[in-house]
Amino acid sequence: MSGPLISITAPRLAQPSVYTEGPTELRKATLRDIGPLLELINAYAAQGIMLPRTEFEMAENIRDFTVIYAGSRLVACAALHIYSPSAAEIRSLAVDPGWKKHGLGRKLLEAVEIEAREFGLKTLFAFTYVDGFFRKLGYDVVDRGELPLKAWKDCLRCPKFQACDEIAMLKHLG
Ligand SMILES: CC(C)(COP(=O)(O)OP(=O)(O)OC[C@H]1O[C@@H](n2cnc3c(N)ncnc32)[C@H](O)[C@@H]1OP(=O)(O)O)[C@@H](O)C(=O)NCCC(=O)NCCS
């Protein structure tokens, strides 16, 4: 008999315990990232945690996105969506379930805040269910009436529009 019947391959990335460590690369997104971005965001959207995105929207807004890769796998993303000369929204913040609680969410948000400061933005806000995470990063709960009206445009097509339970959070950039 020649050669092994079973070949040993690297563990699948779908097993969370496998990828607790390892090099990650943070960078601005390109159009080539749209497929994996949609996979990550829309998996959470299917659970009602995030808004679903389409390929068209992603292409239109790709310059908003920052991504983190672990090897060839996209494991986290966040978007900085500017509404006015002073205010922007953090959108589509997502970390692959197997990579949660390893500091990637913080790393991303800090990178997006640096980008926001470079643009001269004064405030960042988010609509979220994970207020504990945003509190850790210096965001406070605000009345959604304080946010720019234009920020509501996504709400119009949200399935929860009539009964929104997301928390509005805001941070003043120093
Ligand atoms: C929310 C999310 C982005 C956090 O990413 P993460 O990589 O797990 O977060 P980090 O490991 O960077 O955590 C940073 C800090 O926040 C805390 N934290 C993380 N998730 C938290 C949560 N759900 N509630 C309270 N605190 C949380 C961590 O314990 C850590 O605190 P520490 O620095 O004192 O140890 C991630 O859980 C996720 O993708 N969730 C699903 C999608 C989602 O809800 N996105 C937000 C849309 S607005």
Please tally the β strands and state the result: 7
The number of domains is 1
- Biggest sheet, spatial arrangement of strands: 1-2-3-4-5-7-6
The CATH topology corresponds to Aminopeptidase
Q: Helices and strands, in N-to-C order?
A: EHHEEEHEHEE
Strand content: 15-25%
Which architecture per CATH?
3-Layer(aba) Sandwich
Q: Shape, please?
A: globular
CATH homologous superfamily (4th level) name: Gcn5-related N-acetyltransferase (GNAT)
Description:
The protein is an alpha+beta fold and 174 residues long. The chain has one domain (22-172): 3-Layer(aba) Sandwich (Aminopeptidase), CATH 3.40.630. Helices cover 24% and strands 25% of the residues. It has four helices and seven strands. The protein has a seven-stranded mixed β-sheet with strand order 1-2-3-4-5-7-6, sandwiched between helices. It is globular, with a radius of gyration of 18 Å. The protein starts with 24 loop residues before the first strand and ends with a strand. Residues 1-21 have low confidence and may be disordered. It binds coenzyme A.
